[in-house]
Specification:
The chain is α/β, with parallel strands linked by helices and about 240 residues long. It has a single domain (about 10-135, about 185-235), classed as Undecaprenyl pyrophosphate synthetase. It is built from 7 helices and 6 strands, in the order βααβαβαβααββα. It has helices spanning about 15-25, 30-50, 70-90, 105-120, 135-155, 165, 220-230; strands at about 10-15, 55-60, 95-100, 125-135, 185, 205-210. It has a 6-stranded parallel β-sheet, with helices on both faces. Helix 4 links the parallel strand 3 and strand 4. Helix 1 (about 15-25) crosses helix 2, helix 2 packs parallel to helix 3 (about 70-90) and helix 3 (about 70-90) runs parallel beside helix 4. The protein is globular and about 60 Å long. The two termini are about 30 Å apart. The mean pLDDT is about 95. The site of farnesyl diphosphate has 18 residues, from helix 1, helix 2 and helix 3. Farnesyl diphosphate binds near residues 58 and 78.
Length: about 240
């Protein structure tokens, strides 16, 4: 893949776990478990291929509307993930960053996440962002409030504010990891919408929607979608070089 233009940052909306389980007459949480296995595959593939940043949508601010059983099932999976994967993530030099207010999760999940983040903090390979209790609008609103407070404190003229000023207060800008905007966002399961994922950061992302349900998503399909991305002509509102 060396001569192919790779995305530095890939975002994934891991959708379709529920339908995958329903098709097999299994409880939804087993669909999420299969989704976690798919996530492991794609984290490993991302490290191997040389993607620098991977951001997955694991739990949205809207997902609290689901049944307690399903929500607790997802939170338990996080503990399971840390227990089974931490060693290998470390061996693969992966660093983890959480986007979202994860301190609202149950105590054992918060402890597992903190342990994972702390253990991997000095790694400098793939930066794996997990969006947990994340909502794009919520992120922007929190950022605006913080920036407003900063302006009041420093007596700064609001008319001097730039997009970069707000970016500094988003999860992607406030973690000292220089996370660039996603080049590519993939959504599985045939749904064609963004669902409050990286609302600010996705302004110029390339989008790819696939019908595959997330638990069935393979490294092979990932490779194909990265190849599809490499053929896209990105203009960022300007004109292509050859048009000029
Ligand atoms: C969307 O599918 C998926 C989720 C809301 C949860 C995704 C969570 C995982 C893949 C596990 C994450 C694990 C860790 C350790 C972070 P859906 O339930 O909306 O599917 P449906 O649209 O078919 O019902």
């Amino acid at each position: 893949m060396s001569d192919v233009k790779m995305p530095d940052h890939v975002g994934i909306i891991m959708d379709g776990n529920g339908r995958w389980a329903k098709a097999r007459m299994l409880p939804r949480v087993l669909g999420h478990n299969a989704g976690m296995e798919a996530m492991k595959r794609i984290v490993k593939a991302s490290s191997k291929i040389g993607v620098k940043y991977l951001t997955v949508y694991a739990f949205s601010t809207e997902n609290w509307k689901r049944s307690t059983e399903e929500i607790n099932g997802i939170f338990k999976l996080i503990v399971k993930y840390v227990n089974s994967e931490l060693k290998e993530l470390d061996e693969n030099n992966v660093k983890i960053n959480i986007m979202g207010e994860y301190d609202m999760l149950p105590e054992d999940s918060v402890e597992a996440i903190d342990k994972m983040v702390e253990t991997l903090k000095d790694n400098d390979g793939l930066i794996f962002n997990i969006a947990l209790n994340y909502g794009g609008r919520d992120e922007i609103l929190k950022g605006v409030k913080s920036l407003y407070k900063e302006c009041i404190k420093d007596g700064r003229d609001i008319d001097t504010l730039t997009e970069n000023d707000l970016s500094r207060y988003l999860y992607s800008g406030s973690c000292n990891l220089d996370i660039p905007d996603p080049d590519l966002i993939i959504r599985t399961s045939g749904e064609v919408r963004m669902s409050n994922f990286l609302t600010w950061q996705s302004a110029y992302s390339e989008l790819i929607f696939t019908d595959t349900l997330w638990p069935d998503f393979t490294e092979e399909e990932y490779g194909k979608l990265l190849l599809e991305f490499s053929k896209r002509k990105r203009r960022f509102g300007g004109r292509e070089q050859e048009d000029k």
